[in-house]
Amino acid sequence: MPSDKNEIAMCTAMAGEMLGMKLIYMDAGSGAKMPISESMIQAVAQNVEAPLIIGVA
Prior knowledge:
Layout: H1 6-18, E1 24-26, H2 38-45, E2 52-54
Parallel strand pairs: 1-2
Helix pairs in contact: 1-2
């Protein structure tokens, strides 16, 4: 998903949680030029109760 679309990340994480996912893992992907933005992480963290794991390169 685009790195500037926090709402899409938030909605995707919320949907996963509603479907029974026990944790949310976020990373920018192999070969990404930029890491996940703090604002995207905050948007997801504020809207899910599942543990949030952030992958870094």
